[in-house]
Amino acid sequence: MIRLGEVQKLIIKRFTTVGAYLNVNEAEAEDDILLPKAQLPEDAEVGDKIEVMVYNDSEDRMIATVNRSKLQVGEVGRLKVVSQTRIGSFLDWGLEKDLFLPFSETVGSVELGKEYLVGVYIDKSDRLCATMNIRNFLYTDSPYKANDKVKGTIYNIHPDLGAFVAVEDQYEGLIPKKELFELYQVGDIVEARVTNVQEDGKLDLSLREKAHIQMDKDAKFIVSKLENAGGFLPLNDKSSPAQIKKELNMSKAGFKRAIGRLYKEKLIVFEDGGIRQK
Question: How far apart are CA 230 and CA 232, in angstroms?
């Protein structure tokens, strides 16, 4: 059986004026597909095996090419938007016909000329398409362990759960909502730390360092903010988490740890309504 969206070796069954017709074996009598004449090796003969990529032509018929697509069915990768219509976008995946990204498979908005992380699938009409809903394309058998540093792409953001990340564009990861201190968008590339590997293999991620390392960074950041603010910040351990996040882009717990260190090192004093640099 010829496999749509995959590289495979097929046999040349017959030649015509427009090219050669291929199939999985010489006995197969139906569904031969065309390899255009311009792509035929000069010494090709009936019975030869030739490695081709199978995709849909402009009329959605299966056709062969000796060229290679950037992705095959079931794979995930970054493709550039080269044109847009009311029903979706078209992506450059290295073949004569661009790959269609339906509007229904688009997460957020996409812009012409930008690259997005997509997976390739076959739709209900047996056509090759792209999707930004890539969760089912990702693996849960990553080689990572707690405290490993990783890089990934945010592919979905849930208002209650957090940001879903394709770690190294292959593995399933989640940055919990409580770890998101900035405004992120689908497509953003982030560097994170693995905080936990769940029993099912999914990765819990944090955008912050281990507590003692992060505390050093937060303390230095607060000192710089104090210096820029004339030595006083209207924040203390009574301030709300929302106010601390707005002013410093950090959690209240992280803020309290950092100012505790600064106080012990006699770099700040507590005053009514805030902290002052000594």
Answer: 6
Q: What is the β-pairing status of strands 171-176 and 203-206?
A: parallel
pLDDT in tens, 177-188: 888 877 888 999
Element (H, E) at 252: helix 252-264
Residue 117 CA from chain centroid, whole number: 5
DSSP letters, 96-138, are SSPEEEEGGG--S---TT-EEEEEEEE-TTS-EEEES--GGG-
What pLDDT is recorded for position 229?
86
Cβ contact 35:50 at 8 Å? yes
> pLDDT tens across 119-142, in order?
999 999 999 999 999 999 999 999
Asked whether the beta carbons of 235 and 255 are under 8 A apart, the reply is yes
CATH topology for the 138-206 domain: OB fold (Dihydrolipoamide Acetyltransferase, E2P) (2.40.50)
pTM, two decimal places? 0.73
Distances (CA, A) of 212 to 49, 143, 144, 175, 219: 61, 25, 22, 20, 11
Domain boundaries, the chain: 7-65, 76-135, 138-206, 211-277
Q: How far apart are CA 254 and CA 140, in angstroms?
A: 30
Q: Give the model's confidence band at 50: pLDDT under 50 very low, under 70 low, under 90 confident, else very high.
A: very high
Average pLDDT on 146-169 reads 93
